[in-house]
Amino acid sequence: MDKKLLKKYIISWSIFGVVFIIATLLILFYLDLANGPLYLLILALIFLAGLIGARIFLFKKKFWIRNSPWGVLLTALLVIGLLAHPSVERKSAVFYDNPAPTEVLTLKNGQVRGVYNADKSVEVYAGIPYAEAPVGEYRWKEPRPVNNWEGIKDCSYFSPRSMQADSSPIINSLVDMYAMKGWHPNYNMVPLEPTSEDSLYLNIWRPANMTGSLPIVVYIHGGSLTTGSGSYEKYNGETFAKNGVIMITINYRLGIFGYFAHPSLKEESPNKTTGNYGLLDQIEALRWINANASYFGGDSSNITIAGESAGSSSVSALCTSPLASGLFKYAIGESSSLVVNKKPPHTFRKLEDAYKVADETFKEFNVSSISGLRNIKAEDLVKTKFTNDGMTLDGYALTKMPYEVYQENASNEVALLNGYNILEADAFVVPQFLFSPTNKNNIKDRLESVFGEKTTLELMDLYKERIEKDAFSVFNEIFSIYWFIYPHHSWSNMEFNNSKPVYRYQFTKENGYYGTYHSGELEYAYGNLNKSSHQFAYNEEDYALSEKMVKYWTNFAKTGNPNGEGLPTWEEYNPSNENVMELGKNVGTIKDKYLATYKIIESYLDTLE
C-alpha cells in the first residue's frame, strides 16, 4: 500500500473511530433516558458493527458508495429512537416469576386468590374492586358500592392505574440525574402500567398463616392528585405485613376525572356535591375496608390512614370530612397538609376557581354540556391542558375549611404522626429555574411574585446574611417551608391544642438519590430500600434508619404511639419545647430551626382572603 493511500486510510479510520465512539455513547445515553427495551440497544450496536464492516468492504469504492452506510445507519437510528419507549404491561403483585398462589380468601363480595411473596411469609391480594367502575354516565358521580362477583377472582396482578397523563421518560430520567448528581445507567426497562377509568381497586398485604385480627394501615398515594398508583414499590406493603400490620394501598380517581367541578354536576348529585370525586373514592375504600376487615383478618377498630404529598393532603382532608368519621383511628401525614389558616398552599382550590376551569374545558373540547364531555373518550379527555389538582369545599365531603374543623376540636383521628423532609421544594423549584438559577440579584423579584412586597422584605431581612452567601438555597428553603414544612407545623399545633397526641418528624438523611427531597423518606418508612431501582444510593446506615422508621410507623399503627423497645425515644410534640424528631444520621429530638420563618408565613396567610 503506497504512503498516500495509507495516510488516507489512517485519517479515514481515525475519524470513523471517533464518530463511532461518540455515536455509541449517544445511543447508550438516549436509550437509557428513554427507558427503551434492551433489544433496541442490541439492535443499535449491531447496526454500528455493520457500519464498520460495510466501510471496510466499500473502502475503495466511490465517495457516495463508501459513505452510503452512514445514511442507512442514520435511518436505522431514527427508527430505533421512535421505538425507544417503555412497553405497557400489567404489573405482577410480587417480584419473582411463577409465584405460588394462596388459598382462596372469601370476602364480603366474593372470593379472591392472591400470591405469596418469595419466602411465603406474606400473602398479597392485588386488584380487589372496592367500588363499581365510574364510567359512562357514572363519570363525575359519587362512587357506587361494588357488586358481588361470581367465581374466584385472580388477584395476582395490580389493576390499571387511574387515568393520568404520563410524563416523558426522558424528562423523568433527566430529573433523576439531577437528583443523583450523576448518571447511573440502567438498561432494565421498566414497563408502564396500563391506565383505565375502571381503576377503583385496592391491594392487601397480610402475614401468611395469621391468626386473630391485626391493625390496618391504609396508604393513599401522592402525585399532585393527578398521577400515581397504589402499586408503586416505594410503599409496597410486604415489610409492614412482616411487622404484624396489614397494609392496604388504593387507587382513586385523578385529575379531570377525580377533581373536576361544575354547577350542573352539583345539581344532578343527590348529595349536591361536585369536585371531590377522588376524595369520595378514598372514603368509599375506607367503607369497604371496614366492612371486609373481619374477612381478611383486620381489626376495623384499629385503622390508620397514611399518605405522602397529595396523599397526605388527602389524609388531612379525611381527618376533617364528616363522611370519614368513625372509619379510621390514627393518621400519618408525610410532606403535605391542608390544615393551614385561610388558604392551603396546594392541592386545594376555591369552588368558583374550579368552575372557571370547567368552563374553559368545555371550550377546549367544543362541548356545551356535561353529557357532551361524558361522550369524550377518556384517552382524549386526559390530555386536557387544564389542571384539576385541588380539592374544594363541596358542602358534602368537605363542609368547612380543614383548619376550622380543628379549631372546633372536631377532627376524626385520635392521634397524629406527621412530618417533612428538609429539601422538599428543590425538586419543584430547581427545574422551574433550571436555566436561570436564583441568585442574590433576582431573589427579591421572585419572592415578590408570590408573597408581595411586605412579606418579601421581611424574608429578605431574616435571611440577609445567607442570601449574600447562597441565595439559591435560601430561595429553595423558603418554599420548602411555605409549601410543606409550615403546614405540618400548623397541623401539629392544632392537634396539640386539641389535647391529642402528636408526633412530628424532620427527615434529614442524605443519600445518593432523592434523600431529603420530596418523597425521599418513603422507601425508608415503608421498608422498601431493597426494592428500589436505585439501590446504589443506600448503605448500611440507610438500612439501619429504615428499620427504625418501620418500627416507629408500625408501632404507631398498633397503639397510636411510635415508641417501642430498642428505639430512641420519640417525644410527643409540644410547642413550648420547640421539639421535632430528627430522622437521619442522628435519630433523636432536636429544636425546630424554622420558627422565625413560620411567623412571617403566618402573617402572610392572615392577609389572604
Brief summary:
The protein is of the alpha/beta class and 609 residues long. The protein has 20 helices and 16 strands.
Topology:
Elements: H1 3-34, H2 38-57, H3 63-66, H4 68-83, E1 105-107, E2 110-113, E3 115-116, E4 122-129, E5 152-154, E6 161-162, H5 169-180, E7 195-196, E8 201-207, E9 214-220, H6 238-242, E10 246-250, H7 255-259, H8 263-268, H9 277-296, E11 298-308, H10 310-320, E12 330-334, H11 351-364, H12 370-374, H13 378-381, H14 402-407, E13 415-421, H15 426-432, H16 443-462, H17 464-497, E14 502-507, H18 522-525, H19 540-559, E15 579-583, E16 587-591, H20 595-606
Parallel strand pairs: 2-5, 6-7, 9-10, 9-11, 11-12, 12-13, 13-14, 14-15
Antiparallel strand pairs: 1-2, 3-4, 4-8, 8-10, 15-16
Helix pairs in contact: 1-2, 1-5, 2-4, 16-17, 16-20
Helical residues, percent: 40-55%
**Given this structure, which CATH class of the largest domain is correct?**
Alpha Beta
Rg result:
27 Å
Largest sheet: spatial strand order: 3-4-8-10-9-11-12-13-14-15-16
Mean pLDDT: 92
CATH topology of the largest domain: Rossmann fold
The H-level CATH homologous superfamily of the largest domain, spelled out, is: Alpha/Beta hydrolase fold, catalytic domain
Indicate the CATH architecture of the largest domain. 3-Layer(aba) Sandwich
Model regions low in confidence, pLDDT < 50 over at least 5 residues: none
The dominant shape is globular
Number of structural domains: 2
Structural category is alpha/beta
Q: Tell me the strand percentage band.
A: 5-15%
N-end to C-end Cα span: 86 Å
DSSP strand count: 16
SS element count, helices: 20
Q: How is the main sheet built?
A: 11 strands, mixed
